[in-house]
Amino acid sequence: MIYKWKEKYFHISRYNFYFGLLTGVVVCLFCMFHVYTKQSELYLVIAAFASFVIALLCSNVFHFTIQKKIKYSFWLCLLATMTTGLGSYLQSDILYVSIGIIILMILLALSTLGGTGFFTVLLLSSSLFIIGTGFSANNALSAFYNALSFFLGSGIIFSLLIGSAFLKQKSLHLKETFKLPHFQPMTFSVIIYAFQLIVAVLLTYYISQYLKFPDGYWLPMTALLVLKMDHFDSFQRMKHRFLGTVLGSLVSIPISFITDKYILSLFMIPILLFVVLGASKHYGSFTLFLTAMISIIMNIASDKGIYILFYRNLDTFFAVLCVAFILLLTKFIKFIVMARKIKKAKKL
Questions:
Q1: How many Å apart are CA 212 and CA 226, to the nearest integer?
Q2: Which percentage of the chain shows pLDDT scores above 70?
Q3: Max CA-CA distance within the chain?
Q4: Cα separation of 45 and 243, whole Å?
Q5: Which of 89, 156, 194, 212 has the smallest C-beta neighbourhood within 10 Å, fewest atoms?
Q6: Euclidean distance between the first and final Cα of the chain, in Å?
Q7: Which residues, 6 or more positions from 232, have their beta carbon under 8 angstroms from its beta carbon?
Q8: Distance between CA atoms of 214 and 307, rounded to whole angstroms?
Q9: Claim: this prediction has a pTM higher than 0.85
Q10: For the purposes of burial, counting CB atoms within 10 Å of the CB of 127, is it exposed (0-12), middle (13-18) or buried (19 or more)?
């Protein structure tokens, strides 16, 4: 029974276990250093989050060779560093953020033609643009420091990847890192997916701006992560995201009452381990531990306590509702178009 449960919700291998454990240690150290230095800025918290993002990429492409993992991690380090800095710099300008979202959503839809690795890099980079709008930056220099912090955190995990390749005595080819993937021909479904992404992310972004939720960037980010080209996959992810967030919030309630931030930092080690183990296997189990991780990071960065969990569930609810509406509307439009075509064909 336990074996079946483990196989369903977690991808457990020696590599995943050690990689998750090392990521947890790195994130824990960043969080502890943030607490120790008593910084008002979130540079070390951003670095901790960056470490998690690279680990998440490697979990999603666990079946790739170490060469490919290094390749896509390298590009994610660069692209996400830029989008994080850009998002934090443009955060107060709704027009420019909207333009950025439109451009990134078009690129993301097109990236589906380049394979899983390329799509995951663009997905996470786009997410970091949205999350970046929540990182305070009073000027271009602050935005640059945010970007630099992300590069530092992601660079450490990237270095661990290279180190693991040398330990395994794997030969690495530099030119492979810069080699573009083979792109499939353009399809109409990619165009539809681009429109769905633009509408979903912009709609949820405007809702978050209007309702002025604290950390409201989680709303459009959630919409971005659950919306897939395949409608069945989207509804599955919505269900898992919602249930995972609710269960993760329940698990996080006792942790939210811990006031010692050094102890909270230590919790990052086991939680990051389970995040990495669950990411490649089951979206629900991943979301559960992700919710716990975000709750801890927020409580380390500030003193929001249980308050953050309420808004995390509210963000998820609105995001899922908006994505479901867009998917059902797309189905309805397709049905109307098909009905008209059939009607014209009968007349002929």
A1: 22
A2: 93
A3: 77
A4: 27
A5: 212
A6: 61
A7: none
A8: 10
A9: yes
A10: buried
CB-based contact 128:150 (threshold 8 Å): yes
Residue 106 in this model has a pLDDT that exceeds 90: yes
The pLDDT value given to residue 147: 93
CA angle 94, 100, 102 (to 5 degrees): 105
Phi, psi (5° rounding) for residue 201? -70, -40
- The tens digit of pLDDT for each residue in 295-304 reads 888 888 877 6
Give the residue carrying structure tokens 């809702």. Answer: 207
Q: Is 186 helix (H, G, I), strand (E, B) or coil?
A: coil
Interatomic CA distance for residues 88 and 135, integer angstroms = 5
pLDDT in tens, 199-237: 999 999 999 988 887 778 889 999 999 999 888 888 888
3-state secondary structure of 258: coil
DSSP state of 305: T
Q: Percentage of the chain with pLDDT > 90?
A: 35
Q: What average pLDDT does the segment 250-273 reach?
A: 89
C-alpha 211/C-alpha 298 separation (Å) is 20
Phi, psi of 67 (to 5 degrees): -60, -45
The C-alpha R_g of the chain, in whole angstroms, comes to: 20
Residue 302: left (phi > 0), alpha (psi -120 to 50), or beta? beta
pLDDT at 3 over 70: no
Helices (H), the chain: 2-9, 14-37, 43-60, 66-90, 94-111, 116-132, 140-167, 174-177, 188-211, 218-226, 231-256, 261-279, 283-301, 307-347
- Mean pLDDT score across all residues of the chain: 86
Question: Nearest Cα to 79, choosing from 147, 172, 161?
Answer: 147
